[in-house]
Specification:
The protein is an alpha+beta fold and 188 residues long. It is built from 5 helices and 9 strands; from the N terminus they run αβββββαβαβαββα. A hairpin with a 5-residue loop joins strand 3 and strand 4.
Length: 188
């Protein structure tokens, strides 16, 4: 077997490291991708529309003070159900959208319900909510609840529910204010 010069060996090692880095990056991207939810179709706004009239899975989760909040408490309202976390940049970018939507449509039977998935719970969520002056309801979520919504594999993941509690749209990732507004208005 022929021997390699030190410069050839160095080149070979760098090439192998580069290939490994590319493979690792490809694996990371593939593992972060959202698995599509069953029975959905993509809409013009980039949202995913529910293909049937299934009710959103019910839940009871604690708010920031530990008081139980039920999804059914919001029946009769159009609900934007947002799975998010304080450490998630795109989630943080959507907060001003949700505040504006609440201000504009809250009197028409619309509510944003934030489901925080931070591992440390209210301890980290409460100061964030206070600093951002979030006035829409926030509950502390869990993986069980996220799993009931098809496994929330990316944050933010937001569901638009009609007044009967049916999932009308699913959004994975950041969306502009206008996208939400376009989908909410017809349901009011």
């Amino acid at each position: 077997m022929p021997s390699l010069s030190s410069s050839s060996a160095s080149l070979l090692v760098r090439g192998l490291l580069a290939c490994g880095a590319v493979a690792l990056a490809a694996f990371a991207l593939a593992s972060c991708r959202e698995t599509p939810a069953p029975r959905t179709t993509a809409g013009a706004s980039g949202a995913v529309a529910a293909a049937d009239s299934n009710l959103a899975p019910g839940f009871t989760l604690p708010d920031l003070e530990g008081t139980p909040v039920r999804l059914s408490d919001f029946r009769g309202k159009v609900v934007l159900l947002d799975f998010w976390a304080t450490w998630c940049g795109p989630c943080r970018m959507e907060v001003p959208h949700f505040k504006k939507l609440t201000e504009k449509y809250g009197g028409q039977g619309f509510v944003v319900l934030g489901v925080a998935l931070d591992e440390t719970g209210a301890e980290v969520v409460r100061p964030f909510v206070q600093k951002q002056d979030i006035r829409y309801p926030i509950v502390i979520g869990d993986q069980y609840t996220a799993g009931r919504y098809g496994g929330v594999g990316a944050l933010p993941t937001t569901f638009l529910l009609d007044r009967e509690g049916r999932v009308v749209k699913k959004y994975v990732g950041y969306r502009d204010l206008e996208v939400f507004e376009e989908d909410i208005r017809p349901l009011l």
